[in-house]
């Protein structure tokens, strides 16, 4: 228990605790690391044991004050002012039905000494992580995979199918884990483990069901829903700050938060000019400064210019699984800067793009459905021209040729395949050509898994089907995952007011045609935002939360790519085919293709592979 707790000490530097119980039926050991945010007293430390129930809990319950009043009316007696005790007493009063009353982000374990049962539960949209490993007649669980590996890594093996999935997506979907036998408790689910070694799981909230119900009803008032969500996410006994990129989503959250609590300040990132040039990145800090100045918000600027060769191995360890998105570095460095100023809570605009149709892929897929109706000769001519355009010239990246080449990879495909190819790193044939031939079945399985998830809905418009798939795959598997790991590595909690069960329901009440309206994305959200923000911000080009990936891959990491990736264990083991990998790298370095994301993901996966092997995990 101490080994596991120490491995994730960064998640809770303020207090630590262990609780144990043994009787003739069960042996239960719970450990907790606390980041104190609500009720800062020692009385609210965990594990929290009270009248036969013991709870360890990661996250926040934003409506805990309202629930506390209701529970007190039912006879509950409270000894702390924490939301943790509200979770415990809500379970005592309502059992599993309490989960449907909770508004927040959470993962928790609750032991009941009367029954000997252990319950694991996770919030509706999967904001907070929970890994578990059935082991003998029991279960081992933790907020991060690295804690499990520290305890039982020598018993475990790498799951090659999950590595194939990571190559396709550049992250590992929630439905898989990179270690065989370890599972992620699904969002909106609880699992109950009994003393006899049996267990069952059920879903108390499913986003696909909520989306169908919302789509069948009237459109929600987005303005009031979002204002209320931001206000709810401010509950804390410590100061709250906000990320501000200068784009629409972060500007909405920051301005509404500052309006509700004037002490809210903001953090933004800037990049070295030479990195922006190769990446063809806009200077988003200009817009962040405009928003901050207009509304009187104190803005802290953090320049992102890390020694990426030194930072990448640390980032790989932080992320737990092979995740190839450099945006995690931005989150880590901003959270570290904020933490150095005493900040424990930061708001983020994450989730708006997924729920309201804000990614380029959403518009691109709508355009592709129209493109497919053009005469074949016109489409062939367009493909011929795009194939011959370079993606960079010297040290300058060419954004539109890069996008055009990407568009051509999926423009002629049917809906689900088109959407998958619009954001994944390879088509099925190219991925199969890069991996060991023995893994070709795994390639097929991960492609089929995407199809099954995409088609698991009752929605009648393409845009909302894409948004729903993103909520279940991209948002949960990538964005929420890296945000949790990177922020908690700095002992900072990131809250996401758009990733809220009430906001999600409202989002799916909006027809797809009001999300992508002509060539305008997030149109319905922009309509609402005009009451909060100037048109210059509402209708500016999309701001990315990106990183100078291409500058890092072509310059800073060039030697590491040759030595560590091409000469690495994945190639040596045969999982990656050396010649296919070398062609991928050569095409990128020559500017013929933009393969920077693929190379970054593969290098990250190689470093991850070495990490877990050194922890005793078998190949």
Characterization of this structure:
The structure is a single chain. The chain is globular, with a radius of gyration of 24 Å. The chain has 619 residues and is an alpha+beta fold. The chain contains 29 helices and 18 strands. Helix content is 47%, strand content 15%.
Briefly, what is this?
The chain has 619 residues and is α+β, with helices and mostly antiparallel strands. The protein is 47% helix and 15% strand.
Q: How many helical elements?
A: 29
Radius of gyration from CA coordinates: 24 Å
Strands in their spatial order, largest beta sheet: 3-4-5-6-10-11
> Which structural class do the helices and strands define?
alpha+beta
Q: How much helicity do the residues have?
A: 40-55%
Number of strands: 18
Percent of sequence in beta strands: 5-15%
Largest sheet report: 6 strands, antiparallel
Main attributes?
619 residues, alpha+beta, five-stranded parallel β-sheet, 18 strands
Topology:
Layout (H helix, E strand, L loop, with lengths): L1 H6 L7 E8 L4 E8 L13 E3 L2 E9 L2 H10 L9 H12 L9 E9 L5 E5 L8 E5 L2 E5 L2 H8 L7 H10 L13 E2 L4 E5 L5 E5 L3 H9 L6 H11 L7 E4 L4 H13 L4 E7 L1 H7 L5 H11 L3 E6 L3 H12 L7 H14 L4 E3 L4 H5 L3 H12 L4 H12 L4 E2 L2 E2 L1 H10 L6 H9 L4 H7 L5 H16 L6 H11 L1 H16 L3 E3 L5 H8 L14 H7 L5 H4 L10 H8 L1 H9 L2 H4 L5 H12 L6 H19 L5
Parallel strand pairs: 12-13, 12-15, 13-14, 15-18
Antiparallel strand pairs: 1-2, 3-4, 4-5, 5-6, 6-10, 7-8, 7-9, 10-11, 16-17
Helix pairs in contact: 2-3, 5-19, 6-22, 7-22, 9-25, 11-29, 12-21, 14-17, 20-21, 25-26, 25-29, 26-29
């Amino acid at each position: 228990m101490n080994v596991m707790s120490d491995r994730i000490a960064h998640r809770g530097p303020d207090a630590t605790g262990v609780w144990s119980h043994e009787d003739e039926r069960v042996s239960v050991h719970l450990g907790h690391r606390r980041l104190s945010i609500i009720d800062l007293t020692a009385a609210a430390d965990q594990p929290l044991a009270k009248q036969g129930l013991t709870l360890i809990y990661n996250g926040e319950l934003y409506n805990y004050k309202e629930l506390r009043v209701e529970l007190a009316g039912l006879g509950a007696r409270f000894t702390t002012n924490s939301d943790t005790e509200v979770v415990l007493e809500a379970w005592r009063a309502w059992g599993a039905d309490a989960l449907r009353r909770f508004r927040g982000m959470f993962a928790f374990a609750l032991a009941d000494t009367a029954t000997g049962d252990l319950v694991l539960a996770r919030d509706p949209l999967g904001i907070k992580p929970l890994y578990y490993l059935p082991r003998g007649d029991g279960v081992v669980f933790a907020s991060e995979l690295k804690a499990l590996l520290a305890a039982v890594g020598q018993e475990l093996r790498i799951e090659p199918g999950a590595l194939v999935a990571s190559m396709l997506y550049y992250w590992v979907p929630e439905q898989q884990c990179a270690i065989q036998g370890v599972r992620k408790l699904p969002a909106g689910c609880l699992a109950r483990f009994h003393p006899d070694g049996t267990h069952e799981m059920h879903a108390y909230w499913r986003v696909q069901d909520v989306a169908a119900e919302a789509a069948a009803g009237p459109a929600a008032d987005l303005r009031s829903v979002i204002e209320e969500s931001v206000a709810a996410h401010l509950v804390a006994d410590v100061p709250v700050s906000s990320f501000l990129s200068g784009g629409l989503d972060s500007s909405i959250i920051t301005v509404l938060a500052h309006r509700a609590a004037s002490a809210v300040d903001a953090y933004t990132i800037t990049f070295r000019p030479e990195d922006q040039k190769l990446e063809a990145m806009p200077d988003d800090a200009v817009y962040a400064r405009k928003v901050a100045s207009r509304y009187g918000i104190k803005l802290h600027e953090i320049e992102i210019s890390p020694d990426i060769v030194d930072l990448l191995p640390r980032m790989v360890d932080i992320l737990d699984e092979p995740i190839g998105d450099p945006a995690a570095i931005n989150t880590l460095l901003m959270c570290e800067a904020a933490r150095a100023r005493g900040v424990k809570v930061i708001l983020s605009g994450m989730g708006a793009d997924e729920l309201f149709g804000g990614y380029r892929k959403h518009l691109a897929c709508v355009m592709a459905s129209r493109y497919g109706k053009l005469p074949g000769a016109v489409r062939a001519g367009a493909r011929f021209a795009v194939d011959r355009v370079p993606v960079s010239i010297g040290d300058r990246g060419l954004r539109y040729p890069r996008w055009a080449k990407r568009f051509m990879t999926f423009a002629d495909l049917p809906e689900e395949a088109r959407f998958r190819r619009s954001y994944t790193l390879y088509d099925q044939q190219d991925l199969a050509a890069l991996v060991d031939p023995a893994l070709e079945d795994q390639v097929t399985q991960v492609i089929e898994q995407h199809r099954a998830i995409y088609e698991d809905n009752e929605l009648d418009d393409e845009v909302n089907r894409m948004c729903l798939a993103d909520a279940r795959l991209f948002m949960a598997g990538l964005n929420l995952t890296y945000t949790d790991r990177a922020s908690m590595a700095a002992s900072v909690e990131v809250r996401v007011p758009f990733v809220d069960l009430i906001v999600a329901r409202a989002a799916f009440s909006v027809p797809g045609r009001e999300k992508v309206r002509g060539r305008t994305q997030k149109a319905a959200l922009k309509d609402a935002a005009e009451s909060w923000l100037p048109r210059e911000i509402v209708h500016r080009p999309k701001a990315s939360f990106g990183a100078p990936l291409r500058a890092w891959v072509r310059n800073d990491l060039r030697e590491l790519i040759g030595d560590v990736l091409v000469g690495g264990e994945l190639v040596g083991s045969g999982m990656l085919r050396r010649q296919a990998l070398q062609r991928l790298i050569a095409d990128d370095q020559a500017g013929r293709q933009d393969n920077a994301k693929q190379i970054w993901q593969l290098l990250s996966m190689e470093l991850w592979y070495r990490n877990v092997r050194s922890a005793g995990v078998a190949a």
